[in-house]
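haha ok so turns out i had the wrong file open the whole time. this is the CORRECT one, sorry everyone. sequence first:
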Amino acid sequence: MKPMIFYGRTRMSDGKGVVIKSLILRAAALTFAAGTGLCAQGAAFASDKSEQSRPNVLLVVFDDLNDWVKPLSDAPSATPNLSAFARESAVFTQASTASPVCNPSRVALLTGVHPTVSGIYNNAQVYPRVDHWIKDARNLPQHFRDNGYIAAGYGKIFHHRHVEAYENADIWTPGYYAPWNLEKEEALPEAAEMRIEIPGLKRHFGRLPDDWDRDDPSKMQQDTLNTLSAVNFLNGAHDKPFFLALGIYRPHTHWYAARRYWDKFPREKIALAEGVKEGDLDDVPPYGRLLAYADAGDKRSPEDYADLKATPEFAERAPFMRNLRQDYLVDHDLYKDAQRAYLASVAYADDMFGRVMAALEASGYADNTIVVVVSDHGYHLGEKEHWHKSTMWERSMRVPFMIRDVRPGRRNVRINTPVSLLDVFPTLVDMTGINAPKHDLNGVDLAPVLSGERRDRGRPVVSTLYRGFHSVRNDQYRFIRYPDGTTELYDMQKDPWEWSNLSGNDRYAPIVKELSSWVPSAEEETVGHVGDKAP
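then structure:
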């Protein structure tokens, strides 16, 4: 079977122009129609959609997807569906997450509230249960429900653990929700035809047989099942406008994908990532080196790292850190395998995105649906000697962020002003014409930027790892400040890989001073329960 681009009214073909069999959803069969890759009934609902006074919203959230996608870089990835979507969208080329960690990033995205205001800094905090006003703030799906929308969500949208807390939080329209499934994820290693363990760490990845994620629901990863749920939703008739969210878990670890995705990236052609440099951490303050090294058998950590881990700012996070080191993977001859696994997972995730976009195109809803595509944060692939997120550098912070507007004339546009995932909430409020929420939103409405009325966001983007760890990004520089006052400054136009820390150079003192003024002067205490283990 030869995968083809789903999006753009193409299809899945076996090389003979024949559309492949039916794909089975949990409770219903979906038969792909020849020439569209979708259920034939979807097009019948165009008239229902045209009667809606407000546009629909489709929000697609990837996990750990960095900028190794064709709209943003020339990296050796295979993302034809994202590339096709970019040609019809506004692409924000300098988008940053509010936090380079799953839970705080998603809470910020979905509430429009910055971590320093919400007190949500780590993965152990169960957002609907924290002792803080943020749990009562109406998040995006709730707010759209309040404004007369159907709110449907499939997959990892909020953080995936503590599923019962989210199920009981009355977030989604009843009957339109399927959460992330831990059991499905834990079953993958046994199904793999090839599995690779990282010595000394609870990290593994593998290749699934090529009959996975095709026709048999017992051989479908949860991303496939959740995507088909979203497809099924789009094939339905709805008497209200809808807010549909699809959380695609890959390329989050553990990296498992079918053989056909691995085969796109022959091992002998895998090379070091362009941003990998020996000695890259030599001019980085101790806190930064600690974030890069963490607890992955760091054989070069200075003795004072133990003192840093004992500080209140770091103690709440240190138990969760199990990051990979670049030299560790190289020493164990695992670098190429790890990169292949990540790229295979990205290719699989792109296919899932293509399916849901093809469903939207054939449904009759496409002309009245705003589509927003983001990742919760980036991911290092060896840069800064690091394989993970949870750092203050560009590799953790930069994310894909694209919007396809229902208005004509704003397609295939690249917007270079730095923006934040915090901006999604206020932008969708403006674009759909719904009421503003009662709580204050910390992001910026990008609708004037999308329409061309304004050229930039108006202020730098501030991202926070956890208390005392902040990054400020403007159109040229990334500034980083740690709890002990140590700093980093990089000229992102001249030094995109952040190899030269300029913060100690007197010539750049005015820039350091200016960007320092954007660092939050007040930070909410960490709220809720911080567990002994990362959920």
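The chain has one domain: 23-88+96-408.
again sry for the mixup
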